[in-house]
Amino acid sequence: MGICYYVTMTTLSVIIITKNAATTLRACLASVQWANEIIIVDSGSTDETLAISREFTPKVINQDWLGFGPQKNYALGLATSDWVLAIDADEWLDAKLANEIQQTLLHPMADVYALPRCSKFCGQFMKYGAWGNDYVTRLFKRQSASFSNDLVHEKLLFAGAAKKLNNWLWHDSCDNLATAISKMNNYSSLSAQMKFQQGKRGNLASAVFRGFWTFLKAYIFKRGFLDGRAGFILSWVTAEGSYYRYLKLMYLQEQSNDSKNH
Hints:
Blueprint (H helix, E strand, L loop, with lengths): L11 E7 L3 H9 L6 E6 L6 H8 L3 E3 L5 H11 L4 E4 L4 E3 L1 H12 L5 E10 L2 E2 L8 E8 L3 E3 L8 E3 L4 E2 L4 E6 L2 H21 L6 H18 L6 H34 L1
Parallel strand pairs: 1-2, 1-4, 2-3, 6-11, 6-12
Antiparallel strand pairs: 4-8, 5-12, 6-7, 6-8, 9-10
Helix pairs in contact: 1-2, 5-7, 6-7
């Protein structure tokens, strides 16, 4: 009697959360169209995001915005494959990374993998500063990790250590200064709200100190100056984000105290 061998193929789900991401989404989806499943969770796009999404996958789900962490966990709950790749709508894989992921999943040596990411700021890819040496944990065995419930700057929660891959995940973060400032303002508000809910406190002195330290760390210690003019601007915008985060936290505290006293 002959012996039958059964080979189980490892499968991959890609999860993406979107809102008005038409300018970058096509490149993102084209870079992962080889995956077994693509799941897009949209929170009310009014541009061509939904039409572009449906060119690549039938699994396009509408979900009111829950916050970055909860929204990604909602998308993760819809995944059915053995492994999950979580990427943002303004990120894409180059061919080398796509091939590396496919080869890695043939013989995985860890449950979680970190991808090196190179981000573009106002038309320039940044090699140093706040965005330099940036590894993001995005590839993981489906039941081995989940996202923190943070409203912004969510983290992937998992046991053990992540193994690093070698090839690049590309990130078109801010194509102009207005977008950068808008994101900084939005993220600092969400972060202040989250810290307030956690019982954290802020004041003018802490806001000034944290802003100054953030700039010094990004521009000097992380060598943001080597990225030229863009390195200085990014370091300054990053510092502003830290400054406003704690300033907004201070005002949230004051508003809360005023409401309690009336």
